[in-house]
Amino acid sequence: MDIADFSLDLFSLAGRNALVTGGNTGLGRAFSLALAKAGADVFAVGLADDDGTTRRLIERAGRRMEFAVADITQAGVPAAIVQRCVETLGSVDILVNSAGISLLSDVGEFGREQWDRMVSVNLTAAFELAHEASRFMIGQRSGKIINIASLFSFLGGRRSPAYAATKAGIAGFTKAYCDELATYNIQVNAIAPGYFKTAITEATRADPAASRRVVEHIPAGRWGETADLMGATVFLASRASDYVNGHVLVVDGGYLVR
User: Fold this and answer.
1) Residue 103's pLDDT is what?
2) Is there a contact between 90 and 84 (Cβ–Cβ < 8 Å)?
3) Fewest CB atoms less than 10 Å from the CB: which of 17, 78, 190, 208?
4) What is the assigned CATH class of domain 11-257?
5) Residues forming the active site
6) Is the CB of residue 160 less than 8 Å from the CB of residue 110?
7) pTM confidence score
8) What is the 3-state secondary structure (H, E, C) of the chain?
9) What distance in Å separates the CA atoms of residue 258 and residue 254, rounded to the nearest whole number?
10) What is the mean pLDDT of residues 147-162?
11) How many angstroms from the chain centroid is the CA of residue 179?
12) Over residues 78-99, mean pLDDT
């Protein structure tokens, strides 16, 4: 593309269809709404019925939302979800692997049960969904896969070794899939959020001393808001990022520089 051909239209997702896991709550809701506001229709997946909030926001943006209740760790479910997205919306052009959990225990009490659960949700399900979605993307010779990593892709994780392990795994998986799928015009990237105001961080934010320690480590001087992730999501889902591949985009207010 010549520089004269650059246009803000490259950021438009009009005519695109997105599959977002965990897409009706927390950060996933922000990802879903960002894609919708940029023009995409959204197929969201969650563990429980949507309360209607995400649908209202997406429909207010003039886009369509489909929703499925599903446990993406169960055998055959990722394939069925991708197939249903294609059947209802017509394609799967964008996949956002947002679903994730964080189980906390002291190191002596963090055992195999917690480890297996976190690996199955945070890493294995993301792999299976990307595997299934990429089959359709290869056929259409285009697609965007956005995995959700974390600061803990780069740092240790006190009281949750599996969280750090799975998020480091997401970063490695993103790079490996980029290497294989680039030839089909499929870009595979990740977003690594820092400390955000979500249910997972509620206990830390409620503790004044703990919250202050976090904020003092962030050059921006504040906790992240879910809206802070929306621009990165649209960029990585759009044609504007067609030459960005295998990258882990950190959105952390500068936390990692200190």
Assistant:
1) 85
2) no
3) 208
4) alpha beta
5) 163
6) yes
7) 0.97
8) CCHHHCCHHHHCCCCCEEEEECCCCHHHHHHHHHHHHCCCEEEEEECCCCCCHHHHHHHHCCCCEEEEECCCCCCCHHHHHHHHHHHHHCCCCEEEECCCCCCCCCCCCCCHHHHHHHHHHHHHHHHHHHHHHHHHHHHHCCEEEEEECCHHHCCCCCCCHHHHHHHHHHHHHHHHHHHHHHHHCEEEEEEEECCECCHHHHHHHHCHHHHHHHHHCCCCCCCECHHHHHHHHHHHHCHHHCCCCCCEEEECCCHHHC
9) 8
10) 90
11) 19
12) 98
Strand bridging mode 41-46 / 94-97:
unpaired
Q: Give the span between the Cα atoms of 21 and 38, in whole angstroms.
A: 18
Residue-wise pLDDT for 205-217, tens only, equals: 999 999 999 999 9
Cα 23 → chain centroid: 9
Residue 25's pLDDT is: 93
Band of residue 105 on the pLDDT scale cut at 50, 70, 90 = confident
The confidence score (pLDDT) of residue 134 equals: 98
Hey, what are 166's tokens?
């799975």
